[in-house]
Amino acid sequence: MMAEKKHMALALCSGCGIGAALDTDKLTAAATGFAGNLPCMQHEALCSESGLDVLHRFTKEHEVDHLAIAACSPRVKSEEFSLTGIYVERINLREQVAWVMEPGEEDTQMCAEDQTRMALARLHSISEIRPYVPDHVNRDILVVGGGIAGLTAAREGAEAGYTIHLVEKRKIPGGYAGRLYKLSPEGAGRNTLSEPDIQELVREVQENPNINLHLETTIQSISGEPGNFTVRLQHEKEQTIGVGAVVVSTGWKPYDTNRLGHLGYGASRVKTLEEFEQYVRTDAVPGRVLFILCAGSRDKEHLPYCSSYCCSASLKQALYVREKNPDAEVYIVYRDIRTVGFQEEFYKMVQADDAILMTKGSVESVREEHGEVRVVVKDSLIANEVTIAADMVVLATGMVPNSTIDLQLQYRQGSGLPEIEYDFSDSHFICFPYETRRTGIYAAGTVRAPMDIEQSREDGAGAMMKAIQSVESVKRGEAVHPRSGDMTFPELFMERCTDCKRCTEECPFGMYDENEKGTPLPNPARCRRCGICVGSCPERVIGFADYDINSISAMIKAVDVPDEFEEKPRILLFICENDAYPALDAAGVSRLRISPFVRVIPVRCLGSINKVWISDALAHGYDGVLQIGCKPGDDYQCHFIHGSELTKKRGENLQETLETMMLEPERIRTQFVEITEHHAIVSIINAYVEELEAIGPNPFKSM
Amino acid sequence: MELIKPDIAFKRELSRLSGSQLNQCMQCGNCSAVCSLAPAERPFPRKEMIWSAWGIREKLMGNVDVWLCHQCGDCSTSCPRDVKPADVIAAVRQQTYLHYARPHWMGKLLSDPAWLPVAIALPVVVIVVILMLAGTFRIPEGPVDYSAFFPHGWLNGSISVITLFFYGLAFRGLRKFWQDMQQQFPAETGQKRGLSLVMVLGEVLSHSSFSGCEGKPVRKIAHMMLFFGFGLLILTTAYAIYATISHHYPLTLNNPFKMMANLASLMIFTGLGIMVSQRLLNRRVFGRSGYSDWLLLASIGLLTLSGLVVELARFGNWTLAYHLYFFHLVCVWFVIIYLPYSKMGHIFFRTTALIYARRIGRK
Amino acid sequence: MNSTTLVIGGGISGITAAAELADAGRQVVLIEKEPYLGGHVAGFHNYFPKLCPPSCGLEINYQRIRSNPRISYYTGARVTAIEGGYGHYEVTITLEPRLINNRCTSCGKCAGVCPEEPKAAYIPGGLAFPMKYTIQADLCKKEACGKCLEVCPYDAIQLDACAATVEIEVGKIIIATGWSLYDAGRLEHYHYQQEQDVVTNLEFEHLLAATTRENRQLTRPSDGKVPARIAFIQCAGSRDVNHLPYCSAVCCGVSIKHALTLAEAYPDIATEIFYIDIRLPGRNEKLLERAKATGRIKFTKGKVGRIIHHNNRSGLTLEVEDVMAGGKRYDAFDMVVLAMGMTPNHIDKDLAVNMYGFYLEGQPSGIITASSCKRPMDVSSSVKDATAAALKTMRR
Questions:
Q1: pLDDT at residue C302, as a whole number
Q2: Number of separate domains in chain C
Q3: Looking at the partner chain, which of B24, B50, B54 has a beta carbon nearest the beta carbon of A351?
Q4: Same structural domain for residues A228 and A297?
Q5: From the list C189, C306, C328, which residue is nearest B43 (CB)?
Q6: pTM for the complete prediction?
Q7: Is A276 part of any domain?
């Protein structure tokens, strides 16, 4: 794969206890023994001014283009050790060898030598990184949905100098917020309901020359990848536009009222918040209006979540009642009043009206009789069970996100955005809320999570930022979150592909489309570079320039495995770079002790581990393979959503294979840790080594 | 199942009387938690606050708990919404006098400042009528002798009859109050009534409930001054009535009862002084004092003051002595005859409620 | 027009704003007043609702900062002056000396010999960023001791270092100064200052974080025993006209998270949460359901009136009305956690604030406020708002 011969070299630092723990001359000898004419250098503080000076002269002298630096973790001194024009492989001798193993011991020395050989093997087998930069990158951005989030996204994007296509299926933009009678106050110190200001935003959007407003328009299809999406729009006739990224802000609809019969819905005197919002504009408000909060929300039988806007919306409508009919009384039955932040002030302000009466309680029944509605409330603050008579009941119904199927994504994995929970298209990442599992497509507003107008505005702007960022990253040939800046991308050796569809099914981001035969059609700009496809491919045809089947296999085989009579087991540790690797570093910082029998290979994600690496390892004589990654499950911490989950599943299959090979199933183990669990990771490793010592050597060792 | 009938007018009246934005209560329960007098079961005043907010009169009128409150203000000072539960409870008590007033108009007469002229006119007219009947409606000649103006027999007789008449009526209100308490706080395992009475008397005399309120010894002292000062004056009055019968009236200055009465006046002035200054200086704790509160303080103050002045007028043979005496009698009327209908009614209502509370073991 | 953006505040919001801008191709300078990035969240045990560690997301962001040449950052740095205006702000930054220079390799020798307790030379754990030691000037005896000077092989210790100033010109400024906890000492009825076992939610968070970091059990401060009963007092000084009248939006989630963390890790600790309203809006309701499903966390509606302070008795008695059950309780707990609210942090420049001192959105042109210095909010909302703030600086 390499056009020219590589100029490799090794720079070794003996500072920070490395020199005290290891015989560095022996280590250099082992390296040259492995890689032949390998220029090597040593320094007692490689990162110091003098060390770097020596290093720079060294690399220049030997025209080094691939350099192994045996020193500290790649997570530190990255600036010092990033050398222009040189591919650097860091060998973590400090945190993961010298600081965690007995200094001066033979086993520690062997570990360091193996890790060095592994790095050299990798450097030897990787190919040159050429980023994926399409010839033409479209910078325009599509916003789907013209509600408050979409309008804000469009305006902010246009203000930043991007051309925006805003598509709205209705005749009038503004969405739900545009149909409101009045708005509740935002922020502190404002004491009145205000007239809706959304028309101002609509006008700004209409007048902005950077925004193309497509009203009464539906999407026929969205195909392509970030930087090059092709969107077919249908208005009166079909129109095709090209965009670089998409913001989805298709909003929400009220919960299905047909399911609220138990709260009296269907009777003429029972309305929903949405209905009452329109009702007050035209009709006479009766003398007693009762609001039932959490109607069909926070309820396992209905919407299990809280829609977060209904409390303040109901309080606002209570004021409508009083404005429209000054003699009216309002009753509010709540579970918890959730006026968070400065909304607390609004709650107090509504309560300043003494004809608005509130009680906590749970509604037992709503019945229309004697020309009024009788609401039975249990566990109220007034008494255990009370009946309240009203002339009208308003049900505070929750938000249901609109389906994103209308996006008509031409993706092999489906036409909508993958939904994580309760049909919301959210990332489920606390630190990265805008991520969806479709690169370049970002969800904003209530389609993503229940929220109010203020939050929707922030959301619109934030999602637009991500969209812009995705376009800019494509232009630079870089990955977006979480491997921002990564310039590699998966390359497929199609001749050997058997159209098995594993990669197209397992990619968490829907990077692969398929042709009718099932052959994968990669869209590299959609890729987040997790390598799960590398792990999924049984034919081993997928690889990244610096992370492919061969390079990892070469690392595995570079380890010098002693034979069974030496009683020195070897355990291969595949460790996820994202959380487990930093945790292991932290164990080093705390100077915990780990077994010197493990050999560490960092992986992009546990999901990227190919079965062949495991069989290579067992065939090479390792006694066991331990994979440590991020927590799977509903509250996953896997940066690539289901990498850990997949590994768990694949691990179960692998163990069956082991049994057919007459190997103990314990020889493969998958464990999960959190980034802060450096004590746990050490116990896991040491316990596994002990367990394998008890089981005895791998029978394949001497073969 | 209870059908709730919110009475917004009643709620607004409580709000007006207490000066509290009581609707802004968020039912956190802090008030009940900090109250050192609230019973463990169904403590107050949080539940009274929601009943007030919903204007549920029937839950507040026959309510024992509002009488357990001694207005220390702990709940109000620590209230996170500043809705002054102590003042709301005080307003409920005030509404209670009105609610159980028999005849009802007597309650109205003393709770609304608009009716003050009538409240004053009533004793004036009645006393004039009695004087006319006695044939002494004129300023007597010679050294000041009040019995020449208002013969002792007429005085003692007429005042006693009128007092008994109104107290008799008021008693019917108290009975209804008792019945309502029974309905709202049904007795489960109760103590004997007699013992409850003794307990309550003990409490009243020792002012032990005041000690329950944390860190407000000043209030206890003030109330004790007033309470015992008033008691001594009643005692003096009883002795004076006896003296009129045994014909050694008027009392001389060195008569021990006279000395006691003067001491009592001093006690009352001290108590009143503390109360007024506390109300003016420490509004956060003592809340906003309403009309009935000031009316009570004013009538006691004027009664005591006019009593002293009348005494001086007699010794000094002032020409205005009879006018002052007339004024003193009007004050007596305000304090004694109006007692069940004004804030003074707490003597009856609180004692009744406390007896009921101890009877059902509520403490 | 200078195209560099300054981000003031290196907590989760500032880091996010900086990284998002740099990933979109902009030049960014990030400054943080503490010696390390990460702000409050770097010291947190976990986030709700997923109960995942904050370091996980921080690590991704640190990686972005490490690998993106468009971001530069200063720690131990404060803005001391902002002059100029839109497009050309001249900012003076004062750098507090960390007494250890950039040569530090984090080998840890200085902390090893530091005789002070707590140690003057420190690093807050193995995931700190930047991975360099700091000497706390107020704890260090400087040249009088000088032990670290002797052992440092890299000439990294500079005990005589003074504050330095840096002047930079930027086009726009994002203010993400975050929040501080309300002063618990002002809640006299909870005896925070007298009782060691009455702690704030932030202190409890740090206690939990220490259990993972030091691989040990949770113990209470007074006697080092594992507490058997822990009470959480919600709205401690929040929604209270005598203190913070607003709701801080996160404290319910935080306490439920704490109780749930305990329920899952310590089967013997009983917890009870005293609340006014449980405010866990949106999908976080799931956390509440999960907490209730453990069957080991008691939820009681009722604001705790006071903690009774016994001069020479251990155990903390809470006075509270169980509002729904309608009874008053005097219950003893081994430890009490006060769910305290947020107050905004400010910079040394007069900017428009609301009645509670939080920064308003409307500021001089080119100055954008973000996240919890604007209103109380949780981490996810802060990240969301910081991303939105990043875009606002890109306006032409």
A1: 97
A2: 2
A3: B24
A4: no
A5: C328
A6: 0.94
A7: yes
